[in-house]
Structures are given as structure tokens and as C-alpha cells.
Amino acid sequence: MDARARRSRDKLSAAVLELAERDGIEAVSMVSIAQAAGVNRSTVYEHAASPLELLRMVLRDELDAIRDRHLTPGAHPDTRTAVRHTTLDVLRHADAHAAIYSRALGSAESTALHGMLSAHFRQSVLTLFQSGAITPPDIPGLDTCFRDVAAARFVADGTVGAIDAWLATPAPRDLAAFAALYVVLLPTWWPLSATQVLEQIAADGQ
Fold first, then answer.
1. CB-CB contact of 191 with 177 (8 Å)
2. In the CATH hierarchy, which top-level class contains the domain 1-49?
3. Which of the following CATH numbers is that of domain 50-204: 2.40.50, 1.10.10, 3.30.1050, 1.10.357?
4. What is the tens place of the pLDDT at every residue in 31-79?
5. How many C-beta neighbours within 10 Å does residue 142 have?
């Protein structure tokens, strides 16, 4: 993406997030995005075919940046640290966009955003499996490829459901309390410690 396209994408990203938070993405049009971003409508269509597609793209870009920052080999000294930082940043991302996620996850747009979140989380889990950073328990007679896919789907879809429930609670939401619950809901082989998560939240100041 060249510099001009990058500037347009940044303007469109800010516009669609603001409009979706204020009005709900179902009420947002390509015209309103163009007006809020200060660009031509044709520019909006160069980036996405619909407001929902643009919103999904913007949110996915933020999630991808979190994954790249923490799950890139060498980003952290060990898997536990990488998973801990990834988890907390994802929860902060969801809370920061709670008005969008809580509205969309309970509406006709829920399929698109639920699918985007689940696919992102599933790919993150599979990346950890494929790198050997995490290995689910072996089950005699069960194909390991199927095991990995099923485990990734279980963790990913469960995470989306838990976040959906959390965002339905009133603000301000307690990150530490939800993170502690989330850890105990995960499989015992998942490398996340409630104690370390709470210590990290305290160290981060939230």
C-alpha cells in the first residue's frame, strides 16, 4: 500500500470506527463514511465493498498487529509470556471497541464479526501449534491434524463467546476479574496462569 492509500485507509478506519460506535454499523453508509473521512465515495470503495467489510477489515488489522507484536518468534522470552501479553491486549482491544462488538455480536451483523474474531483466534492458536510452542494432549487413535483443528476451534469459539458475555456487562468492566475467569475456563494444557495474568495487569496499570 503506497503512502496515499495508507493515509486514506487511516482516515477511513477512524471514520468507520466512530460511526459504528455511535450509530451501529447497520446504520452506516458508504456516503457517511466518505463524508466523515473527508474523501470521495469512490475512495471508500477502493478499500471495501460495504461498511461492514471495512469495519471488519479495520478490527482485524488491529488484532493482526497484536498477534504480530507478541507471537512473532523472539518477541518474548517464552510461550507463556507471549500468550499472556496477547490475551490481555486482545481483551483490551475488545473492551476499547465494546460499543461496536457488543452491539454487533447481538445483531444481524453478528455472523460477520463473530466469524472474523473466531477465524483470527483460530489462526493464532494454530500458529502456536504449528510452531511447537503449544501441543494439545495426544489422544490414542485420533489424527493429530484433526486434534489441532478441533482444539483451535474450541479455544477460539469459546473465547468469542466469553468476550461476548463480558461485553454485555455494564462499563467500566473489570479486566482482572474477567481475565481470572477466562483462565479457569481454558483447557488445563493452555499455558496461561491466573496469577501471572493478574500480576501483569497490575504491572501494566490495568
1. no
2. mainly alpha
3. 1.10.357
4. 999 999 999 999 999 999 999 999 999 999 999 999 999 999 999 999 9
5. 12
Q: Which three cell numbers stand for residue 61?
A: 488489522
pLDDT of residue 88: 98
Q: Is 32 in contact with 77 (CB distance < 8 Å)?
A: no
CA 125 to chain centre: 12
Cα–Cα dist 56/110, whole Å: 11
pLDDT tens-digit map of 44-54? 999 999 999 99
Nearest-angstrom CA–CA distance, 32 and 23: 11
Handedness of CA 173, 176, 181, 182 (dihedral sign): positive
Domains of the chain: which residue ranges? Answer: 1-49, 50-204
Give the percent of the chain with pLDDT over 90. 87
Q: What's the one-letter identity of residue 60?
A: R
pTM for this model (two decimals): 0.93
Distance in angstroms (rounded) separating the CA atoms of residues 21 and 158: 24
Q: Using the 8-state DSSP alphabet, how is residue 95 labeled?
A: H
What does the pLDDT look like over 150-206, one tens digit per residue?
Answer: 999 999 999 999 999 999 999 999 999 999 999 999 999 999 999 999 999 999 987
Cell numbers for 46, please give them: 477502493
> What's the rounded Cα separation, in Å, for the pair 92 and 26?
24
